Amino acid sequence: MNISNKLTFLRIFLAFFCVGFVLVNTFLFHILALLLFLVASLTDFLDGYLARKHNNTTDLGKILDPIADKILIIGMFAAFVEIGIITAWMVIVILLREFIITSLRFYGLRKNIVLEAQRLGKHKTFSQVVGILVIFSFLICYDICPQANFTDFLRAWAIPVVMWYIIVVTLFSGASFFWQNRQAIKTF
Q: What is the extent of the structural domain holding 99?
């Protein structure tokens, strides 16, 4: 259990608190959820950086890191669905893509075939983090001043545009993953 794996476990732990705090749906808890989300996102960067820097990547880390990412991201989107900020079908699309790709990766690992993450997949994750931050911006602005034009803009335009962008990138990254790994997947 190295520091990178401990950071990954911390991200999973923080994810549950982030989701719970969003569901409380008050200003203070939105601020706390945002701060925890930022810390959890930072652990995602740090665990990979430290593992590479100290050359101590582990099989546990290779398996746990993407799972921790999915728990954090999908948990946040599910919480936003629950409080009525985004629609469920968008989260279902994201969830299906993650489930299919992660299942294929684990199946490949069992056969000693590594299905590499694609550059577009990293962009997908980044866009999801940005989307979550946009939604937090709306929640906090709305908590402070629900009648402000800025909150109307975020709810009516910014959140839908960002979520549609995330959906498009999610679908394209899934298609890219299948295309780039088509030879390896054929051996399954």
A: 3-186
Q: Say what the pTM is.
A: 0.90
Which tens digits make up the pLDDT trace of 148-176? 888 888 889 999 999 999 999 999 999 99
Please count the structural domains in the chain: 1
Q: Are 113 and 181 in contact (CB under 8 A)?
A: no
Give the model's pLDDT for residue 85: 95
Cα separation, 112 vs 31, in Å, equals 43
CATH of the domain at 33: 1.20.120.1760
How many CB atoms are located within 10 Å of the residue 113 CB? 16
DSSP code of 116? P
Give phi and psi for 116, each to the nearest 5: -70, 150
- Paired tokens of 125: 């994750």
d(CA 175, CA 112): 22
Q: How far apart, in whole angstroms, are the C-alpha atoms of residue 147 and residue 28? A: 19
CA distances (Å), 182 to each of 5, 170, 174, 179, 185, in order?
Answer: 30, 18, 12, 5, 5
Q: Are 30 and 87 in contact (CB under 8 A)?
A: no
Enclosing H/E stretch for 21: helix 3-24
- Higher-confidence residue of 59 and 101: namely 101
